[in-house]
Batch of 2 targets.
Target 1
Amino acid sequence: MNLENQTVGDVQLAYVDSGEGMPVLLIHGFPLDHTMWNAQIGALAARYRVIAPDLRGFGSSGITPGKVTMEQFADDLASLLDALGIGGPAVVCGLSMGGYVAWQFWCKYAQRVRALILCDTRAAADAPEVAAGRLVTADRLLREGPGMLAETMMPKLLAESTAAGRPELAEALGRVIERTDPQGIAAALRGMAERPDVTARLAEITCPALLIVGAEDAISTPQEMGTIARAIPGARLVEIAGAGHMSPVERPQQVSAAMLELLATLG
């Protein structure tokens, strides 16, 4: 997949732009990059135009030290769609932190959202102690580098069966984390720590919505995702057996099939 570059505002974003038709924007999780969506890009691009960027601070995109809010990420993506000539509504899909960005994209650019796909994410803001922990981790990252984050996060990202049966997957995710600039990771951590709670706004979402969650996700549990789905009018929840927090990577065929089923209803 060819990686292209586009300057939007004060940052250069790297992205994959593959296929033709209704645009589908894939927003990666923390602290990863667009490659987590490789299977979905391959599955969707035969029928749709798939845009999979590296958010600022991640992958091959430009770095912004300090703090990057979820709203800033959303603004970047709106500008990227503008630069690519996509003025009409797109299907917006995000995993984990990408879901936080997707919420903010909907809050600010609802008219540009054809449908929402939320994978293994949360609508609630961080509890104070969790937010404080993110700030501590951000400072530690700048001292020690991203290797410490790969070590501490990996047990939480994958289902036990995935980690045991597919060690190469854990190794590949670890390599992505380890090559990410610590300043980019730290900036996103600080932004996540102060992200707004969107729970009270879920009932306002009128576009089609699909929620996907790994049955073994310990970070954004099926129970929590179910609560979100029930709060969004007409939303559908798909639970992916044998997957943890990284359901699109752990069970790509099942996740892609759920996405394609929704996309087929959109015309």
Note: The chain has a mean pLDDT of 96.
Target 2
Amino acid sequence: REAAILFGGCMLLAMIGAAIMFPTDSVVAYPFMGGIGLAVGVLNTLLVSSLAEERRVALMLAGVDALSGVANRRTFFDRASQEAERAKRYRRPLAIASFDLDSFKQVNDTFGHAAGDAAIRATATAVAGQLRRLDTLARIGGDVFAVLMPETDPTSAGQVSERLRRAVAATVIAAGEATFSVRATFGVTEFDSERDTIESALARADKALYRGKEEGRDRVVAF
């Protein structure tokens, strides 16, 4: 949009400049006008692309996933490490959930990749709206998300994950003229402060997620 506006402005300025410099010679004025407009328009398009890339890098450095708007993988592990240390020191409960969208490839194949991106954004919004401020929702890759839940015991973590699953299923996603919904499978685990690392706990949550896929998808499984 910005590029189109800038290009239109450049063309207008080129027309005015051509009219002033060549008031009677249209054979010279039109090529001159077009050349200037095209050159400046291309430069402005490159500028807009550069600004978009700078924004993407800034979001990444800020710890935000550019597509979903939630935390990225690095931020998740940074916060999880901090919460793990606190859980070990003060013997406090900590739960981790991992989830992804069921049959996500089918969404892309049926509605297109733009619809897949819309599904990821809508899922992130739906889940984030159900979490507390001290929880962390992160997109850690593709359509895979992780949720860090401090001060949450296994029973409560399962209940929270079931609420998140229902929120995802109830979300209507619009992509162009198409509307659709998606489902998600959740794997949940408790962080064991005596034996676990964040990596091992997340791996166990992933294992529970895969069990949920084997059992039919669209469910919560706890290990």
Note: Residues 133 and 146 are 15 Å apart (CA to CA).
